[in-house]
Amino acid sequence: EEAYQQACRSGSPRLQAMSLNALGASHLFLGDLTTAIHHYEAALAALRQEPDNKLEALIINNLGGVYIRRREYSAAVHYSHQAVALAHAHRNRYGLAVANTLLGNLWLDLGAFTQAQTAYTEALQILAEVREPYWENWARTGQAFLWRLDGQYAAAAQACYHVLAQVQGKMPPFEHQALTYLGEVRCGQGDVGAGEALYRRALMIQREANLRFRLAEPIFRLALLLLQERDDGKAALALIDETLQQVLTSGYTVVAAPF
């Protein structure tokens, strides 16, 4: 709030838009989606007075992310396509990679696997040129999950190992995701012991790094494994109860993706 007040005093609409975008992200993180939308829309309005195409694309992506959280998918698709079109129009390669990664995630959530694969492929082609590890690993973990759902276990495992080689000990959120999806692959291939070990590694990272997103993924998969393969309802219930307590304490954002 203080940064926004300073931006207002500066008289720069661009600085106001940057501050409003930061406020929107803060409220998104806190789970206050309505206020987040209000700040993002105000940021876009400020940019009409002092255009900044890269900042506009970032805000539009963020706005699409809020609508994904609200399960308002038609609006999410609208803003995601708008971000892709804006990046194309201004030849913003980095922005196009980001927009396509987020669009791929959205198509994956909607079960549109062909569209998701197209978006991830385009994003990764650009990211091979611009060398941005954060977004590359996000696209690759999404692609790994897509291949796992499609039964392409070898491709999914390869994507997970590629991510782990880059992020191990450096980017806990992606290490957490890659281990979880690799655990799914191993279980799908019939190696339940390896799958359980990978889920437990993901859970350990989740606790040690105090992660705030996607906390349910390894816990629910491990709980299901304990029920189906070990007939250990007590251990499964303890895991699920841990997640429910985190939801009650921090809100539903802890079981969602950052976007």
Write the layout of secondary structure elements.
Layout: H1 2-10, H2 13-30, H3 33-47, H4 53-69, H5 73-89, H6 93-109, H7 113-130, H8 133-149, H9 153-167, H10 172-188, H11 192-208, H12 216-229, H13 233-250
Helix pairs in contact: 1-2, 2-3, 2-4, 3-4, 4-5, 4-6, 5-6, 6-7, 6-8, 7-8, 8-9, 8-10, 9-10, 10-11, 11-12, 12-13
The description of the largest β-sheet is: none
Unreliable segments of 5+ consecutive residues: none
Shape: globular
Estimate the mean pLDDT confidence.
87
Question: How many helices?
Answer: 13
Compute the separation of the termini in Å: 22 Å
Round the Cα radius of gyration to an integer and report it. 19 Å
Q: Structural class, from secondary structure content?
A: mainly alpha
Can you count the beta strands?
A: 0
Order of helices and strands: HHHHHHHHHHHHH
Strand content: under 5%
- Helix residue percentage: over 70%
Quick structural overview:
By secondary structure, the chain is mostly helical. 81% of the residues lie in helices and 0% in strands.
Overview of this protein structure:
- The protein has helices at residues 2-10, 13-30, 33-47, 53-69, 73-89, 93-109, 113-130, 133-149, 153-167, 172-188, 192-208, 216-229, 233-250.
- It is built from 13 helices and no strands.
- With 259 residues, it is mainly alpha-helical.
- Helix 4 (53-69) runs antiparallel to helix 5 (73-89).
